[in-house]
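Appendix B. Raw example, untouched.
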Amino acid sequence: MTERQLIQEILNTVDVVYDFENSDEDNKEYTLLITRQKEDTRELSTINNEMKKYFKEADFSYDETMEPKDSGAEIKVDIARHHLVNTTDA
């Protein structure tokens, strides 16, 4: 499983709408724009905490901005994975 596939798997598990604003696959650094699905009534903090948990478990750094201006997203997340982790057994 590639880094990008793992990220997509996590975001699909949390069940959010997402877009990759920036993807630096060589350095394993990504910026994600997250919004809730139309019918989703969860608080943004709940969604953020769930995403953070999954990304931390997958050994990603996680730096979020709640309700960023000028992005159209509800949460903007910078994640990175700078050390090698075996994802073939995931």
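End of appendix B.
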